[in-house]
Structure formats: structure tokens, C-alpha cells
Here is the input.
Amino acid sequence: MLLRTLAGPLIGSVIGYCTNFIAVKMLFYPRKEIRLFGHRLPFTPGAIPKGKDRLGRAIGKAVGETLLTREDLEKKLLAPEVSSSIAEALAEGLSCPIKSTVKQTVGLTEYDYISGREKICSLLTDQVTDALSRVDLSTIIVEKGIQMIHENLTNPMLLMFVTDDLLHSILDPMGPKVQEMIAVEGPAMIRPVVEEKLKELENQSPSQLLEMMDIQESAVRCVLSSMIQNMLKSSLSRVLDTLDIQKTVEEKVDQMSIEDLEDLVMTIMKKELNTIVNLGALIGLILGLVNLLL
Here is the structure.
């Protein structure tokens, strides 16, 4: 008698559980439509496989217009903390040697770096040589030479014989000779010095160079932060136009397989979906008990 009495509520509970369980599974199954005698069976494919495109558009719209709006992104990206964080990272990069920084930033091999350094060395050598060739060495040699001789000759007798004319006759030919020597032998003499200085420079960091100029690291960070903030303000609008979060989310959902989409939904809502299934069993049990009372 008790078994007959409880049979109704128990059967109702099982039916409620199975109904909700099947309903949840039908969100994802069957994956594809099923045809029988040329006709598509109702409820195939499942709700999510069938409405995947519409789901992607809905999620993209919800994210782009509600959850992550353009105004939200602008507020977050323009926050002082963002520019300060980027400036901090850049400032840390300034502590690395120039050589390694250039190689990592541009992606140069050791061979490419050495080739580039040789080109710079040649360019600087040519510029220094050209600058020296433009200096009026003849005048400098004569004027400074006569001045130094007069300053160092203290013997009056010698000064009587070492006249300006005599000094001019000695020093005047030296200017063109020195000028010619610079043009011919200058690059060979200047290049080793330039190359040595470049090698010393490449092993120093930008921070060390700034310190030589009496520029403090805190000032560099402040300037970098201000520059980044201004860059973000001027270019953020174009970046966000290009980004198009709504379309990006929609495309991402569209590219996902049904299996991946199911895993995503189950990861987020597994507990809630199980609650719905168990709630079906509870409602079936309650309805069975109510039926006993009527």
C-alpha cells in the first residue's frame, strides 16, 4: 500500500528529472540536423548549434554595448596607472646596454649588428675628416705657432733673429701640408678612435648616458609617462575604431566549435544547469504529492 502511495510522487520526480536533463542536453545535442525520409526532425540540431550565429551576435552586442563599452575602455586605458606602468617598463629597458637593446628591439643578428656598426663608424669617420678639412688650419698653425714661439722664447738675442718673417717662412708651408695629410691619411688615423669610442658606447646603457647629462631617472620616468599619456589620448580613438570589440567577440564565437562552446557554457553554468535538472525532480515529486492530496 505504501509503495503504491509513493509510486506517483517518485515517478513524477523521475519524469521531472529526466525531462529537464533532456532539455539541458538538447541545448547542445544533436550537433547536426537529423533527416528522416527527406524531412528534418523537429528540434534538430540542438538549440545552440542551430542558433550559433545569432548567439555570437547577441554576445558580441552584449559585450560591446553593455559589458565593455568604448567609454569603459577609454577610461581604463587613459588612467594614469596605465601610462605609469608602461613608462616603468620602458625605463627598466633603459638600464640594458645599448647593444643588447638595439639587437632585441630590431631583431638583429650579431653579424647584422656588427655590419651596422661598421657603417656608422665609416659615416662618422668621413664626417670628422670632412669637418677637419674645412678648418683653416693654415691660419691656425701660423697664428698659434708664432704666438707659442714668442711666449716660450725669453732670450732677447734669439728674439732679434727669430722675426715674424722668418716664422712665416717656416710655418706658412706647413698648413697646406697638414691639410693634405688629413685628406690622405686622416680616415686611417681617425677611424680606430671612432671605432673604439663606439664600442665603449654600445656597452653603456641609455640610463648611464642620461646620468652623464645630469638627467635623473625619476625625470625620465615622468617624461615617458607624460608622452605615453599624450600618445594614448591622440591615438586611442583610432585604435578603438580599428579594434571593434563587438565584431571581434562575434567572430570569436563564430570560430568556436560546438564542442568548445559547450565546454565554455558548462564551465560557467554547470552548477546552475545541474540545479535546473534537480529542480525538475523536486517539482515532479511535489506535484506527485499534491496529486495524492486531491
About this structure: The two ends are 18 Å apart (CA to CA).
